[in-house]
Hints:
Radius of gyration: 13 Å
Shape: globular
Strand content: 5-15%
CATH topology: Multidrug-efflux Transporter Regulator, Chain: A, Domain 2
Number of strands: 2
Amino acid sequence: MAREVSPELLADPNRLLTGSEVAQILGIGLSTWQAYVSRGKAPAADVPELDRPANRRIPRWRASTVALWQSRQRARNRSS
Length: 80
């Protein structure tokens, strides 16, 4: 994972990102991001699209949500 908050996340904090975009920005695989989310280690989607059938949902996260999570992960890793 990146050592500092990714510049892409800071450019437009309200930008909505798909799981694939989040994973690419963080430098991890999509399955890793999905595992973090499902285990509660990453934030739930800001736009979960619960009104759509489960197989058609495209959850999205605000860049600011991911940036905050990334900075907290960085701080946690430094203190371990």
